[in-house]
Amino acid sequence: IGTYCIYNGKKYYPPKKQSTTVTTSGYQYSLKMDAYYMLTKNIPCMYDKSNGGEAGWSLTGNIQLFCNVFTSILAEAGVTYNGNPITFSCDSTVTSDAKSMDFSSVSIYDAINLICEKFECENWVTEDTWHFGKCEIAGDYVKLEEDDEIVTPSRSESSTEYANKIYAFGS
Questions:
Q1: Residue 87's closest CA among 106, 68, 62, 59?
Q2: What distance in Å separates the CA atoms of residue 17 and residue 15, rounded to the nearest whole number?
Q3: pLDDT digits over 72-126, tens only?
Q4: CB of 1 within 8 A of CB of 13?
Q5: In a 3-state reduction of DSSP, which class is residue 111?
Q6: Neighbours of 70 (CB within 10 A)
Q7: What is the Cβ-side half-sphere exposure of residue 141, based on CA atoms within 13 angstroms?
Q8: Least C-beta-crowded within 10 Å: which of 57, 72, 84, 118?
Q9: What residues does 125 pair with on adjacent strands?
Q10: What are phi and psi of 152, to 5 degrees?
Q11: d(CA 105, CA 53)
Q12: 126-145 pLDDT, tens per residue?
């Protein structure tokens, strides 16, 4: 799917937009590379592309049915991990109840996050598998307060991995 680099056996792709600074001697670029699954931000979530595709559509089903739709869209777009097709895995913490969803001109990445909101779960990627599940800890809850038990997390511009939620672990 275009330009990429391989680092430590993993492919990284440039996002659509790169930051550019105009200087007196020309343009200066700060190259950024994203993990392969961030390509899904550029792939429209269109249902039934064989008939031209529908950008706005509705579907009622369990999370596995939505995953099957995403699998076929990603396969048609040619998104793979080291040549392997992308698969989806739902663990037992995700409900198998059918839910109704409406999509209107969203990317696969955004659609996956909408699914997570609807099914009250999280998602993460390992190699060629996109996982759905819940991070649950049994037992009593512990109150964590900023500047007491936790410190403010720092942010780095040179991230190679993306987090959609942060969980505290440890003693």
A1: 68
A2: 5
A3: 888 888 888 888 899 999 988 888 899 999 999 899 999 999 999 999 999 988 8
A4: yes
A5: helix
A6: 19
A7: 5
A8: 84
A9: 130
A10: -65, 125
A11: 11
A12: 888 999 998 766 666 667 77
pTM of structure? 0.69
Tokens for 75? 């396969």
What is residue 35's three-state secondary structure? strand
- Full strand arrangement of the beta sheet holding 10-13: 5-7, 10-13, 34-35
CB 86 within 8 A of CB 125: no
Specify the residue for token string 């048609």: 76
CA separation for the pair 145, 150 (Å, rounded): 6
For residue 12, the one-letter residue type is Y
Amino acid type, 140 = D
For the chain, helix, strand, coil in percent to 5 are: 20, 30, 45
Identify any residues that bridge with 56 across adjacent strands, giving them in sequence order. 104
Q: What angle do CA 40, 120, 95 make, to 5 degrees?
A: 105
Which residue reads 């209107």 in tokens? 104
